[in-house]
Amino acid sequence: MSETFDAIVIGAGHNGLVAAARLAKEGKRVVVLEAAVEVGGLLGGADPVAAMPFGIHPKIASSLGLSRHGLCYGAPMKTLSFGGGERVEIDGSVARGVALEMAANYAELHRKLTRYSGALAKMLTKAPPRFRDGGLGDMLSMAQLGLSIRGLGKTDMRDMLRIILSNVWDLCEDEIGDGPLAAALAMDATLGGAMGPRSPGTVLTLLYRMASTGSGGAGQRSNPIGGAAAVVSALTKAAEASGASIRTSSPVARVLVDDSDRAVGVALENGTELRAPFILSNATPRRTLLDMLGAQHLNAEDVARLRHMATNGMVARIDLDLAELPEGLSEADLGQRIVVAQDMRRIERAFNAAKYGELPTEPAVEFTGRKTDAGWRLAALSQFAPCKLKGGWTKAKKDKLAKATTKAMEAALPGIGGKITGCDVRSPADLEATYGLTGGHWHHGELRIDQMLMMRPFAGAAQYRMPVAGLYLCGAGAHPGGDISGLPGWNAAGQAIKDGGAT
Amino acid sequence: MNKALTPRPQMPMGALPAPFHDRIAAENVQHSWMNWNGYASPGVLDTAEFEYFAIRNQSTLFDISPMCKFRIKGPDAEAVMNRMVTRDVRRQKPGRVSYVIWCDEDGNVVDDGTLFRRSEDEFLLFCQEPQLLWIKDIAWGFDVEVTEATHDLAGFAFQGPTTAATLRDLKIKEIETMRPFDIRDIKIAGKKVMISRTGFTGDLGYELVMAPKDALAVWDAVYAAGQLRGVRIIGYEALEMARIEAGFLLPRVDFISSQTNLRVNRARNPFEIGLDWLVTFDKPHYNGKRALQRLAGVAPKRKLVAIEVSKDKAAHHALVYHRKTREVGFVTSALWSATTKRNIAYAWLEAPFGQEVKDDLWVEIYLQREIEWQRRMERVMIVERPFFVHPRRTVTPPLNF
After folding, report:
1. By CB atoms within 10 Å of each CB, which of A178, A180, A266, A400 scores lowest?
2. A133 pLDDT band (50/70/90 cuts)?
3. pLDDT tens across B244-298, in order?
4. Are A274 and A421 contained in the same domain?
5. Nearest 5°: CA angle at B399, between B397 and B401?
């Protein structure tokens, strides 16, 4: 006799934990099945892949009482951009270290983008509308987005619609001019995606990121006290406090479907079967649907959409050990987000190489750091490093990327190269192998206009409900997607609760 | 004969000669060629009516080589076909043919075709529209090889009452035990031939498929053997008349494949087309099943119905009216059926017409009589498909005529 629950959550990444906590809070008997030995997904471990998380959405944090479970945020992170040799400091709308005129223009641009992202933010906390056979509620929810954009006023609305599908390059060139300040914005617009500053849609990704409001406000990452581990621990405690049980080292092999075409449980790789009327998967859409569920349960059109989902991961994660900090970098700086990109042109060049499956000679880098017993450890993200690298990810390729990354950092922070004592590169291919992350893509699938809202993960599978009844997607592959907001998990659990009430 | 006066075969621009082209061209006094899937296919060779009556009274050869043909082979062949079509392929034994349709995710019909089960792990699918990519999409993730066989297989339909007698003259013993939809591997003129008791005419008939290099030898043998039994090469026009009588539908004529429609509301589901009998829910998931289950529970918004029209003028392209005033549908295929002496047609009718409301329906027929147009309102009766099917179609062993 297999164990029975009200809901099974596959994967104990932060979205899985959020979903489990919300379901458990509603009184559901929930089990979370995690393949790895520890929970947290990309936030897990001593050197988490996502070392600079955005804040868990405030609505989720308060509903789940995360502060009671030990989650509190420090001051919002500043962005330090060292690209041009001199130091540019960005704190929300305030930029220091640039010409006065540029700073004023930046403040105006920031004000504008914050307003626009606010209009988008309303769409993030709920299930995206369904067009085909959608109900009145779906129409209203779409109308609401329209209204909130209209609510910006005629001038801003027109401006938003003018820029939203354009690229961050043109926007920054028009408004502030190229340089380390623009590069920092362009990093935000492109990080994690297969797009350079000149790719269409990068204004949308920037707005989207700014809409993922943490406690720090638009677009500022919030550093939880205790780091990513504190987020994981608070979510775990919140889920467990409501009665959810979390089982690690329990990789799911298959989602079980009964004769009435309903997902009814899962089979673990060791053969154990667990049953529940609701299965929520925090795995990527492709892993969930093609590997665990199986193409035989899907229409060919959906299989083709999954096969063709853009999921080419572009970010390598590099840990760098430093004996001591270089000149110009203080201990306090290390708690901030540090961008190494001279200007947007360099970022675009780095992307050009990656487009054709090659490594850039001058990658764009952002990093943060912490103190260790032996000195300092920097958690760096180096882009663009394509998952589908020509010739595959060999050790030589990793060394090449590490060398190029440290060279770029040396150019911005002279002296840092000589202080590096250790270096560990995790390629997108490594992330795919370790976390089952399709294409090594952070967001489980590119965040771009044709994979957003009701098109996320693909047309016909929005609203978290997968083609087989009872199966839900609760990870970054679902709306609203990546960054560490917890919203996909929260919304998916809400949808399951709603559907559960109806049956 | 003066060489300059000998008519030279003409070809539609760019069309390829099909495997039997030389034989058909020799008899094609009309030089009427159509482009069928890139091949030159005869529209009519001499007179459509003579060719039609040959289908009903003698025997006929029609080149089906241009049909799209696909081979699906491998351990998962059955699973892939079962995943694609709406019938239960698990119940189709090797050596049998079935008429199948397949649907897209919305439950709209992509195409119809004949599925030949050659063995446990090999199928041949014959259909109208190119489907290679569709089948490959269906087969993704399954252990099966899908190949296009359109140009690797030649074939002709051998249809009519005297076909069995002709094959008997050719000493084909296998036909004695062949029931409708059976397949046998035989030899004609020493060449390997796949013969099936299938066809598009509602009468006794066979389809023969062979390698292109053997095509002419087989054709010649059958054509020679059939001379005393009135064998005739026919074109599309005659076959079209027979297929309307036999109750078969033609994609692009009676309905639009959901892969080719441009307007979103043009695709049609099996319940609308009247092919419900091909849809089973008693099997694992297949393409469009969920949508079809939903559609099965609601009344179709429109329906393709068989109609009979008063008087003798075929209702080509006619609009259908209720009470002679309200427009409720249109005719897709129409024919004065010489065999059944009925004026028949297929028509699309918007609900509830043709479903609950069957009375007081009219077609508006336009007739041109020596350049003058006349308009006629004729009464419509909803009838059952097919209009014509002869008992000898199914008698086994088949009878001599």
Report:
1. A400
2. low
3. 999 999 989 999 999 989 988 899 999 999 999 999 999 999 999 999 999 999 9
4. no
5. 160
**B264-383: which CATH architecture?**
Beta Barrel (2.40)
The pLDDT of residue B3 is: 60
How would DSSP label each residue in A317-359? Answer: EEEEEESSPPTT--TTGGGSEEEE-S-HHHHHHHHHHHHTT--
CB A494 within 8 Å of CB A127: yes
Same domain, A172 and A208: yes
- Output the pLDDT for position B345: 97
Chain region(s) in chain B for CATH 3.30.1360.120: 3-65+153-246
Specify the CATH number for the domain of residue A379.
3.30.70
Token couple for B7: 């008519």
**How many structural domains compose chain A?**
3
Residues B206, B174: Cα–Cα separation, whole Å: 12
User: Is pLDDT of B323 > 70?
Assistant: yes
The closest CB to that of B104, out of A295, A297, A301, belongs to A301
| pLDDT at residue B91 greater than cutoff 50 | yes
The shortest CB-CB distance from A307 to any of B79, B134, B140 is to: B140
In angstroms, rounded to a whole number, what is the distance separating the alpha carbons of residues A195 and B76? 39
Q: Distance between CA B159 and CA B200 in Å, rounded?
A: 8
Residue B49 clears pLDDT 50, i.e. is over it: yes
What is the value of ipTM here, to two decimals? 0.91
What average pLDDT does range B4-24 have in this prediction?
77
Angle at the Cα of A323 (from A320 to A328), degrees rounded to 5?
Answer: 85
Please state, as a whole number, how many other Cβ atoms lie within 10 Å of the Cβ of residue B256. 17
For the B3-65+153-246 domain, the top CATH level (class) is alpha beta
Q: Are A25 and A242 in contact (CB under 8 A)?
A: yes
The values of phi and psi at residue B383, to 5°, are: -130, 180
Q: Is A290 on the interface with B (CB under 8 A)?
A: yes
Mean of the pLDDT values across residues B316-333? 96
Question: Bigger pLDDT: A135 or A468?
Answer: A468
d(CA A476, CA A288): 12
Widest CA span in chain A: 71
Instruction: Give the model's pLDDT for residue A142.
Output: 78
C-alpha distance from A259 to closest chain B C-alpha (Å): 7
Q: Is A131 on the interface with B (CB under 8 A)?
A: no
- Prediction pTM value: 0.92
Residue A226 confidence (pLDDT):
86
Is residue A502 predicted with pLDDT exceeding 50?
no
Smallest CA–CA distance from B80 into chain A, residue: A296
Judge whether residue A29 has pLDDT over 80: yes
Tokens 């009482």 belong to which residue?
A65
Chain B interface, Cβ < 8 Å to A = 79, 83-84, 104-105, 134, 137-138, 140-142, 284-285, 287-290
Q: What is the mean pLDDT of chain B?
A: 95
Q: Is A58 helix (H, G, I), strand (E, B) or coil?
A: helix
CB-defined contacts A:B, below 8 A: 41
Residue B265: is it exposed, middle or buried by C-beta count within 10 angstroms (0-12/13-18/19+)? exposed
Mutation target for A interface from B84, B90, B287, B295: give the one with most A CBs within 10 A.
B287
A198: helix, strand or coil: coil
Window 254-283 of A, Cβ < 8 Å to B: 261
